[in-house]
Amino acid sequence: MADPPPPPPTAAAISAAFPAPPPFYKSFTSANLARLSSLQQSNPSLTIDDLPPELENLLPPPPPPPNHHYRTFGEIHQIPAPPSTEPPPREPPNPHRLLQTTRQLLLTFLSLINALATDPDTWPPKWDEMRALFSEAHAIVNEYRPHQARETLIHMMEEQVERCKMETKACKEACERVRGVLEEVEKGEGLGQPELGSMDVEKRSRSGNEGRLRIKTESRIWQMIEREVGSFD
Fold it and tell me: Is the pTM of this model over 0.70?
Protein backbone atom coordinates (compact mmCIF):
# COMPACT_ATOMS: atom_id res chain seq x y z
CA MET A 1 0.00 0.00 0.00
CA ALA A 2 1.44 3.33 -1.04
CA ASP A 3 2.02 6.04 1.51
CA PRO A 4 -0.63 8.77 1.59
CA PRO A 5 0.41 12.02 -0.11
CA PRO A 6 1.77 14.70 2.23
CA PRO A 7 -0.58 17.50 3.17
CA PRO A 8 -0.26 20.72 1.19
CA PRO A 9 2.07 23.30 2.78
CA THR A 10 0.46 26.06 4.74
CA ALA A 11 0.94 29.75 4.11
CA ALA A 12 3.27 29.99 7.11
CA ALA A 13 5.48 27.18 5.75
CA ILE A 14 5.61 28.79 2.32
CA SER A 15 6.60 32.19 3.71
CA ALA A 16 9.15 30.78 6.20
CA ALA A 17 12.82 31.68 5.65
CA PHE A 18 13.93 28.09 6.35
CA PRO A 19 12.20 24.78 5.61
CA ALA A 20 10.35 22.98 8.37
CA PRO A 21 12.22 20.16 10.19
CA PRO A 22 11.53 16.58 9.10
CA PRO A 23 8.46 15.04 10.72
CA PHE A 24 10.39 12.24 12.49
CA TYR A 25 11.90 14.73 14.94
CA LYS A 26 8.78 14.20 17.05
CA SER A 27 10.00 10.66 17.79
CA PHE A 28 12.99 11.99 19.76
CA THR A 29 11.27 12.36 23.11
CA SER A 30 12.71 11.62 26.54
CA ALA A 31 10.42 8.63 26.96
CA ASN A 32 11.36 7.11 23.59
CA LEU A 33 15.08 7.65 24.21
CA ALA A 34 14.86 6.00 27.63
CA ARG A 35 12.92 3.11 26.12
CA LEU A 36 15.52 2.69 23.34
CA SER A 37 18.35 2.74 25.88
CA SER A 38 16.71 -0.04 27.92
CA LEU A 39 16.17 -2.12 24.77
CA GLN A 40 19.81 -1.69 23.72
CA GLN A 41 21.01 -2.76 27.16
CA SER A 42 18.92 -5.92 27.00
CA ASN A 43 19.90 -6.62 23.36
CA PRO A 44 23.24 -5.08 22.25
CA SER A 45 22.79 -6.31 18.65
CA LEU A 46 19.52 -4.44 18.25
CA THR A 47 18.61 -3.37 14.69
CA ILE A 48 15.89 -1.23 13.18
CA ASP A 49 13.85 -4.33 12.26
CA ASP A 50 13.65 -5.27 15.96
CA LEU A 51 12.18 -1.92 17.04
CA PRO A 52 8.54 -0.90 17.18
CA PRO A 53 7.37 1.70 14.63
CA GLU A 54 7.58 4.63 17.07
CA LEU A 55 11.28 3.90 17.73
CA GLU A 56 12.50 3.15 14.22
CA ASN A 57 13.63 6.73 13.60
CA LEU A 58 15.95 6.75 16.64
CA LEU A 59 18.58 4.54 14.97
CA PRO A 60 20.45 5.53 11.80
CA PRO A 61 19.66 3.39 8.77
CA PRO A 62 22.31 0.88 7.68
CA PRO A 63 24.57 2.00 4.82
CA PRO A 64 23.64 0.67 1.39
CA PRO A 65 25.79 -2.08 -0.11
CA PRO A 66 28.55 -0.96 -2.50
CA ASN A 67 26.85 -2.44 -5.58
CA HIS A 68 23.40 -1.18 -4.72
CA HIS A 69 21.45 0.90 -7.20
CA TYR A 70 18.60 3.35 -6.97
CA ARG A 71 16.09 4.76 -9.43
CA THR A 72 15.55 8.47 -10.06
CA PHE A 73 13.26 9.85 -12.78
CA GLY A 74 13.11 6.44 -14.39
CA GLU A 75 16.90 6.03 -14.56
CA ILE A 76 18.93 3.52 -12.56
CA HIS A 77 22.04 4.86 -10.81
CA GLN A 78 24.74 2.76 -9.21
CA ILE A 79 26.09 3.68 -5.76
CA PRO A 80 29.89 3.82 -6.02
CA ALA A 81 32.05 2.25 -3.37
CA PRO A 82 33.26 4.69 -0.69
CA PRO A 83 36.70 6.09 -1.46
CA SER A 84 39.66 5.03 0.61
CA THR A 85 40.55 7.39 3.46
CA GLU A 86 44.24 6.49 3.36
CA PRO A 87 46.34 9.05 1.48
CA PRO A 88 48.36 7.74 -1.45
CA PRO A 89 52.05 7.18 -0.78
CA ARG A 90 54.06 10.31 -1.50
CA GLU A 91 57.30 9.85 -3.40
CA PRO A 92 60.21 12.22 -2.80
CA PRO A 93 60.70 14.79 -5.56
CA ASN A 94 63.14 13.73 -8.24
CA PRO A 95 65.23 16.57 -9.73
CA HIS A 96 66.31 14.37 -12.64
CA ARG A 97 62.67 13.92 -13.60
CA LEU A 98 62.15 17.70 -13.62
CA LEU A 99 65.28 18.21 -15.72
CA GLN A 100 64.16 15.52 -18.16
CA THR A 101 60.70 17.09 -18.46
CA THR A 102 62.23 20.53 -19.09
CA ARG A 103 64.45 19.18 -21.85
CA GLN A 104 61.53 17.31 -23.40
CA LEU A 105 59.53 20.54 -23.27
CA LEU A 106 62.24 22.42 -25.16
CA LEU A 107 62.42 19.68 -27.82
CA THR A 108 58.66 19.71 -28.19
CA PHE A 109 58.69 23.49 -28.57
CA LEU A 110 61.28 23.22 -31.36
CA SER A 111 59.13 20.56 -33.03
CA LEU A 112 56.13 22.86 -32.77
CA ILE A 113 58.06 25.71 -34.40
CA ASN A 114 59.21 23.37 -37.15
CA ALA A 115 55.66 22.15 -37.72
CA LEU A 116 54.34 25.70 -37.94
CA ALA A 117 57.05 26.60 -40.44
CA THR A 118 56.81 23.54 -42.68
CA ASP A 119 53.32 22.02 -42.27
CA PRO A 120 50.92 24.18 -40.20
CA ASP A 121 48.21 21.51 -40.23
CA THR A 122 50.28 19.22 -37.96
CA TRP A 123 50.70 21.61 -35.02
CA PRO A 124 47.75 20.48 -32.75
CA PRO A 125 49.40 17.21 -31.57
CA LYS A 126 52.60 19.09 -30.67
CA TRP A 127 50.58 21.70 -28.80
CA ASP A 128 48.74 19.01 -26.81
CA GLU A 129 52.06 17.37 -25.99
CA MET A 130 53.40 20.70 -24.70
CA ARG A 131 50.33 21.17 -22.50
CA ALA A 132 50.82 17.69 -21.04
CA LEU A 133 54.51 18.41 -20.37
CA PHE A 134 53.66 21.71 -18.68
CA SER A 135 51.16 19.94 -16.45
CA GLU A 136 53.72 17.30 -15.53
CA ALA A 137 56.36 19.93 -14.73
CA HIS A 138 53.86 21.83 -12.59
CA ALA A 139 53.06 18.63 -10.67
CA ILE A 140 56.76 17.98 -10.08
CA VAL A 141 57.29 21.52 -8.79
CA ASN A 142 54.33 21.12 -6.42
CA GLU A 143 56.08 18.11 -4.89
CA TYR A 144 58.68 20.54 -3.53
CA ARG A 145 56.04 22.49 -1.57
CA PRO A 146 56.58 20.55 1.72
CA HIS A 147 60.33 21.00 1.38
CA GLN A 148 59.88 24.71 0.69
CA ALA A 149 57.55 25.10 3.69
CA ARG A 150 60.03 23.28 5.95
CA GLU A 151 62.98 25.40 4.82
CA THR A 152 60.93 28.60 5.14
CA LEU A 153 59.95 27.66 8.69
CA ILE A 154 63.59 26.92 9.56
CA HIS A 155 64.64 30.31 8.17
CA MET A 156 61.91 32.10 10.15
CA MET A 157 62.91 30.32 13.35
CA GLU A 158 66.58 31.20 12.82
CA GLU A 159 65.68 34.86 12.27
CA GLN A 160 63.57 34.83 15.42
CA VAL A 161 66.42 33.33 17.45
CA GLU A 162 68.88 35.93 16.13
CA ARG A 163 66.42 38.73 16.90
CA CYS A 164 65.98 37.44 20.46
CA LYS A 165 69.78 37.26 20.90
CA MET A 166 70.17 40.85 19.69
CA GLU A 167 67.42 42.06 22.01
CA THR A 168 69.00 40.21 24.94
CA LYS A 169 72.39 41.73 24.12
CA ALA A 170 70.87 45.22 23.91
CA CYS A 171 69.15 44.73 27.28
CA LYS A 172 72.43 43.64 28.89
CA GLU A 173 74.24 46.66 27.43
CA ALA A 174 71.48 48.97 28.69
CA CYS A 175 71.76 47.43 32.16
CA GLU A 176 75.50 48.01 32.15
CA ARG A 177 75.02 51.64 31.13
CA VAL A 178 72.42 52.13 33.87
CA ARG A 179 74.79 50.64 36.44
CA GLY A 180 77.53 53.00 35.29
CA VAL A 181 75.20 56.00 35.54
CA LEU A 182 74.13 54.98 39.04
CA GLU A 183 77.74 54.56 40.12
CA GLU A 184 78.61 58.03 38.79
CA VAL A 185 75.57 59.47 40.57
CA GLU A 186 76.64 57.87 43.83
CA LYS A 187 80.16 59.22 43.40
CA GLY A 188 78.82 62.67 42.54
CA GLU A 189 76.55 62.71 45.57
CA GLY A 190 79.44 61.64 47.79
CA LEU A 191 81.66 64.44 46.42
CA GLY A 192 78.94 67.08 46.37
CA GLN A 193 77.81 66.60 49.95
CA PRO A 194 80.79 66.99 52.31
CA GLU A 195 80.43 66.49 56.01
CA LEU A 196 79.63 69.76 57.67
CA GLY A 197 79.26 70.82 61.22
CA SER A 198 75.94 71.66 62.72
CA MET A 199 76.60 75.37 62.62
CA ASP A 200 77.73 75.31 58.99
CA VAL A 201 74.64 73.26 57.95
CA GLU A 202 72.41 75.73 59.72
CA LYS A 203 74.06 78.68 58.04
CA ARG A 204 73.97 76.98 54.59
CA SER A 205 70.29 76.13 54.92
CA ARG A 206 69.58 79.71 55.86
CA SER A 207 71.41 81.12 52.87
CA GLY A 208 69.89 78.65 50.39
CA ASN A 209 73.17 76.98 49.43
CA GLU A 210 71.64 73.55 50.12
CA GLY A 211 68.98 74.11 47.47
CA ARG A 212 71.58 75.18 44.90
CA LEU A 213 73.63 72.08 45.72
CA ARG A 214 70.62 69.84 45.13
CA ILE A 215 69.90 71.55 41.81
CA LYS A 216 73.52 71.12 40.76
CA THR A 217 73.43 67.40 41.63
CA GLU A 218 70.17 66.85 39.72
CA SER A 219 71.60 68.72 36.75
CA ARG A 220 74.61 66.40 36.71
CA ILE A 221 72.30 63.38 36.84
CA TRP A 222 70.26 64.61 33.87
CA GLN A 223 73.41 65.34 31.91
CA MET A 224 74.63 61.76 32.44
CA ILE A 225 71.23 60.35 31.46
CA GLU A 226 71.12 62.43 28.26
CA ARG A 227 74.65 61.32 27.43
CA GLU A 228 73.59 57.67 27.67
CA VAL A 229 70.08 57.63 26.20
CA GLY A 230 70.00 60.85 24.22
CA SER A 231 68.15 64.12 24.51
CA PHE A 232 64.44 64.20 25.40
CA ASP A 233 63.63 67.19 23.18
Answer: no
